[in-house]
Amino acid sequence: MLPGYPELDPLNPQEHVREFPHAKSWRTVYESVCFCNRCNMCAQSCPTYRLTQDESQSPRGRNQILRLLLEEKIKPAPYAPQLEKTLGSCLFCGACTAVCAGRTPTAQHLLELRRTLKVRLLPLALHTLLSWRGTHPRLFEWAVRFLAGLRNRGAVKMLRFCGLTRLPFLRWVNHADDILPRRTICLKKQLKKAGVKTDYSNPDVFYLPSLEAAYLDSSLGQSALKKLAGHPVNVLFGLSCGLFEYVYGSLRLSRLAARKLITAAGEGAAPVVTDSADVYAFLKNYPALFLHSKTWRRKAERFAARVRFIAQYMPAQNPLPQRTQLDNSALFSFQTDAFTQSEKILRVIFKKNLVQYEYKDTPTPTAGYAFQKGNLAEAVCLERVQQIARKQTEIVVLLNGLAAMELNYRLQKLYPHARAVHIAQL
Q1: Which H or E run contains 55?
Q2: Cross-sheet strand order for the sheet of 354-355
Q3: pTM summary value
Q4: Engineering a disulfide at 95: which of 2, 24, 45, 383 sits with its beta carbon 3.0 to 4.6 angstroms away?
Q5: Do residues 376 and 89 touch, judged by C-beta distance below 8 A?
Q6: Domain 13-117: homologous superfamily in CATH
Q7: CATH no., domain 314-425
């Protein structure tokens, strides 16, 4: 952090982003939050504020809370419950930033606040399991395979029947069981069984599968690899991009995961392709993680230039007749061009049947939001389903596997006329 500006946590500078990019310059956290002039033009774009009409859950209110804490006009301890509610309700979708004239990164501001207060919003067991992906990848893979095997053999059904999943530390298991495919098979195991080679020494493409594609829905990973057919592909198994740590954990561990990934991809020119718009946006933003190191910042910039989204490899298709909409669901979606790329492709495939996504449309919660404390996922998804039904949409295309699972579960219950699919599965 540059001298002369208030800091949230001056004793732990490595756990915070020093500056945020803006146009061709950079702003400190304090400069960035002060740039919000409280005009409230972003309010109606915020899905949680539209539901609650609570100022502390509006983009303007969230920015002002952070500013007051930076200026030490309020102390966090007396307002802990309110702060946890403010942090837990935000979708981190970036809709407010997209309509802000000054592009104020409210979601990034809240992440800085979350890191300072060390608020853990995910259930302890789930948080611990997901953190292993970056710190103990082999243990994580073993744990996921073990839990998937138990679920495939009916262990979760037995737990639900006995009422054990009503216990506070196991409630998240119910929702996970609801949204996941009936059988969960790891992509690595599926490809090994099919005899598919995934470790070329001089690949044309590196494929970084998302958590969902690698461990929860292998069909998504297989669909992505089909789009890359004809290229020798090196699948980067066992590597975390650092997004989970960035959103829910330690920024120091997020940087460590980023270094491992950059090193694994090497210094060549082969593109690094991912199937998640969340991951794509985060990889593109890697240079902001390394402002303290010129060497790693240059490496991150070269790596970010190689990152591609799977939609760029979509083959030409015959026009389809279904009414379709592209769902703008991703973390920090204002930072990425994945949606503009995908919309151009869908415009060719669906032509006049592509329904326009409006700025007041509610994005589907992503990045495990439905598992957080104080989440508004049920109300947000209900509003999203109502919008889909109102426009008589038949196919909702998403750029994130977990969001597609979440929305599909809600549609099956409330509006089975429509279905949600990942763009790679079209």
Answers
A1: none
A2: 354-355, 324-326, 395-398, 419-422
A3: 0.93
A4: 45
A5: yes
A6: Alpha-helical ferredoxin (1.10.1060.10)
A7: 3.40.50
